[in-house]
Design brief:
6-stranded mixed sheet; alpha/beta; 2 domains; Rossmann fold; globular; disordered N terminus; 7-stranded mixed sheet
Length: about 350
């Protein structure tokens, strides 16, 4: 990746029943919860992170948050970190319980990964004014102790669209969205704008796996594979996805059909099998890992980030992955030019399709 991107566990008595229930379903010890010593120059601050649908192992959005949590533990000498998994089709009340449990247990920092934590945080955060909360992918500006970590996904997706347009040989590309929400519309809008920036005559296939309130589109690799294969069958030879864990199925289909793949959020070339790697052009990077690390660092330093923190191309909060040199070498110059024009304000990327 380019250098610009380098940037107490005793449950409270009042939470005993909730703790028992959540331990059974979240199993924090097996799901990555661990205790690290503050050590010399370390910190006694304790950090909890609650994943979005799909959980850790999605090779995308949640895994990027986990990488940030790992950096927190390794580099900041944090007293303790814990990460908790969601359950499929869980109600918002489960998210409320998860956040309240960690705050009750004395965690100083609690981070909700994903916009689904917005209403739960609005309920829980005011109950714990001394806890610093953060949410990824949603703006909450009316609760003093909640910091919003939001991204210009459309800008990274624009670069994905440029890459797709430069790589297609059939003038036909595809987009697979997990769930049709305003957030995923930003990915679609940026991607389509990037494709059209290179050649407005390129055909773009677009498909969403599910519609709200059905959120399974973010964790259904089979549906992702089927959608990608259908797009390839209709002529698309490059497919970009914004579908969370369902993207693993998109990659399977692309590799099997010997088309080309563009990943999202994390560098999905790094997570691809050796057989799949040649088909990964790039990934639209969304540095949730950096956002998590920087937020916790600010708390450790005694000057917590507050309000809405925005991460875009100019700040290095989003970008494109260049791990697959064989695929990126012939388009790097065009990608870098498009990136700079966005940063300079010469290109304004839409956020709605």
């Amino acid at each position: 990746m380019r250098s610009r991107f380098a940037a107490r566990l005793a449950a409270a008595a009042s939470a005993g029943a909730v703790a028992l229930a959540l331990t059974a379903c979240d199993n924090p010890q097996e799901d990555g919860g661990s205790a690290g010593g503050g050590g010399e120059g370390g910190s006694d601050i304790r950090v909890g992170l609650a994943y979005d649908i799909g959980g850790r192992g999605d090779k995308s959005f949640n895994d990027s948050a986990y990488q940030g949590l790992q950096r927190v533990e390794e580099e900041l000498g944090i007293g303790e970190v814990k990460d908790l998994e969601p359950n499929p089709d869980e109600p918002d009340s489960a998210k409320v319980d998860r956040l309240r449990l960690m705050a009750d247990q004395g965690f100083d920092v609690v981070i909700g990964v994903g916009y689904a934590y917005a209403e739960p945080l609005r309920e829980v955060a005011p109950e714990f004014p001394d806890t610093r909360f953060a949410i990824v992918d949603e703006e909450i500006d009316d609760v003093d102790n909640v910091t919003s970590l939001v991204f210009a996904e459309e800008q990274a997706s624009f670069l994905a669209g440029v890459a797709a347009a430069l790589k297609t040989e059939e003038d036909h590309v595809g987009f697979v969205g997990g769930v049709e929400t305003p957030l995923i519309h930003k990915f679609e809008a940026g991607y389509a704008a990037g494709v059209e920036h290179v050649d407005p005559d390129i055909e773009i296939e677009r498909q969403y796996l599910t519609q709200p309130p059905d959120m399974q589109g973010f964790q259904d690799p089979g549906a992702g594979k089927s959608a990608a294969k259908s797009q390839i069958d209709r002529g698309a030879d490059v497919v970009y996805h914004a579908a969370g864990a369902s993207g693993t199925g998109v990659l399977e289909a692309v590799a099997e059909e010997e088309a080309l793949f563009i990943g999202v959020d994390s560098d999905q070339y790094e997570n691809a099998s050796e057989e799949q790697k040649p088909y990964v052009v790039t990934s639209a990077m969304k540095r949730v890992d950096n956002a998590v690390f920087e937020f916790v660092s600010s708390v450790v330093e005694g000057e917590p980030q507050t309000g809405v923190q925005r991460f875009d191309l100019a700040s290095g909060g989003v970008g494109y992955a260049d791990s697959n040199e064989e695929q990126i070498a012939d388009i790097r110059e065009e990608l870098d030019q498009a990136e700079q024009r966005i940063i300079d304000g010469e290109i304004e990327v839409p956020t709605e399709p």
